[in-house]
Amino acid sequence: MFRLSFVVVFSVLCSGLAHAQEVLPRPEGPFTGKIGLTYKDSEAVKPELKVPATFGIEDAPNILIVLIDDCGYGQMGTFGGAIPTPTFDRVANNGLRFNRFHTTALCSPTRAALLCGRNHHSVASGVIGEAGTGFPGYSGIIPASAGTFAETLREYGYMNAWFGKNHNVPDWETSLVGPFDRWSEGLGFDYFYGFVGGDTDQFHPALVEGKKRIEPPETNEDGSPYHFTTDIADKAIRMMRASKAVAPQRPFFVYFATGATHAPHQVPEEWIAKFKGKFEGGWDKYREETFARQKKMGIIPADTKLTPRPDSLPAWDSLPEAERKVYARMMEVFAAFTAHTDHEVGRLVDTIEEMGELDNTLVIYMAGDNGSSAEGGINGLLNEMTFFNALPESLDTKLAAFDTLGSDKHYNHFPAGWAWAMDTPFQWTKQIASHFGGTRNGMAMSWPKRIKAKGELRDQFHHVIDIAPTILEAVGVEAPAQLNGVAQKPIEGVSMIYTFDDADAPDRRTTQYFEMLGNQGMYHDGWMASALRGIPWDSESPPIDLLNMPWELYHIDKDFSQANDLAKQNPEKLDELVKLFFAEGSKYQVMPLDGRKTERLNIDNRPSLTQGRTKFTYPNLLRLPEGASPDLKHKSHTISANVTIPEGGADGMIFTQGGRFAGYGLFVKDGKLVYHYNLAGVERFNIASDKKIPTGEVEIKAVYKTDADKAFAGADVTLFANGEKIAKGRVEKSIPNRVTLDETLDIGFDTGTPVADVYEMPFKFEGQLDSVTIELE
Question: Can you list the positions of beta strands (E) in 594-682?
């Protein structure tokens, strides 16, 4: 009797779990059948499929989240930009545009907030992990107490797949040994195909499938030349089709996070040709024309003012003709990159429609994880690694590369003037959390079965943390109180579903702080206080007292673009908001404030697999990301290997880190030992033996002796074979901050791109190589 009653009570409790906060994964219930001595006098209970219907969720929607990287508010045609984006138009016209949607001003913080439904500092992602510090809001380690909505959906039977960029793995956890808690599977996904890090070469990406690093295919599935965005679209389409063919009872959640339009701006040549000559008017004209379109389309209020160009950015007409020529070409490439990306997203939407699933698919298209990027500096870049290492590029080198911009020859990035133009009508760009140029992004949602409006605008103030609760409400579940045995932080976002049927619904997000790299902002009840720490196109800005910033004040309800600073007219309101910022900052782990930029990349207070070690022996054919590799930058060290070279000789790579856009390598070419140092393409230093190295068993050694342990220090490099000095030369200037953003340290072969264009990839060593040893002095 007791057992029967318990079963009935348990069943009643389970029937309501879909609508109540609960413990996930669910505790196992008691066996409700009968167990006798044999199967003949026993009653089996068939396990239920793990699908939404099992939990009382009927007709659960599929979900597609599209997240474009480094995309400005005025970039895409859907929000008035000059670049046609028909897929974004399609989603908006089939549902809603949101014109006051916000992000965090930087990539991985926005992505952590998106997945967790909590502010970026609350989930330890106050800055990119590579610049993390040992404080709760900045460690880069998403805590177990902030589970993702994907983990919740998976427990209700969703098939979750992630394609593209994952920049939420701590730098030191990106190697083959993990740990994998914050890789895609640990964040709630069944499948991952993309790259782990901040950006990647679109033609030679640092591909990962699941947890395994792989080399990209030679072509896309249709036989066209390989491109990363097309590749991840191919894989997403295949996954969606397979999912519905095999298990139509399971809805899919596809997170499609492109590497575009983040640098490098690389795109097939035929797409660049579509935009030839379209940007010769320059960035000032682009802003004026985009602003006019935004007003005509009703994207911005009729009384919006166009904010002026910052004094630190040059007027387009003031530039020499040669600069205008190069910069216009860089914008053509960027426009092509944007249009190509939207086209590939369109293939996903087409597939969902062809499968008959579009009516019950919630599509969320986010045009940016922050504002457009000004990290190309005033003059634009052929190679983004020069920005991260404070290395100059000449105009002559840009002119020489005019015809190959956008190809795999370059890791290019357009000038800051174009980034500012992409963020029309707002001030500033990516990194600047104090102003909407860094945080306001175009966003559209469609879900025909639930959103009956077509092409309407919603102007409620919302933030990326609101996406997770929106999805959970759409499915009909709540975030769990406990996940994987860990009590969960409350969700800090609010669902946006209240806006679906009521364009005039009062805002439910009335307060939101902003902070990034010392830039500070506080929104409350239609007002915004803003404090700018530094200019985004400078790698470092002069020191400033972060506790006494020069704050600005805007009445956002009447000033859409933050054009009219009211700080002097209303000091009481400003004081109220500044105090609220510090209160919210204390609540959400924003403190301590930190305005450092590149300096934080070198701070020695993050976990390290190499700290305290001076000797590393790595096996043949190993690949290691920089975050898990020994730091050899301006450090004296020796690279040695015992190899066996057959009578006919053996070429190939012994050791390399990085590739075409920065790095160094020790290899055998034409029988001679070579050490090549690539200073981000600005300079190259080549030390090679005059004669071939011996055959048989040979000890190869390269001794790197730095002039000083400081940024840019030169070094003497000496090469040895069997203890005999066979070459000596100089590296006159070294990489100071970061060798590579996406390539690996490779032993016995070279993946990604070549460090020197004198060999064919993967340049696997042809002799016998067991291991390579690196010793730091």
Answer: 615-619, 623-625, 637-645, 652-659, 662-669, 672-679
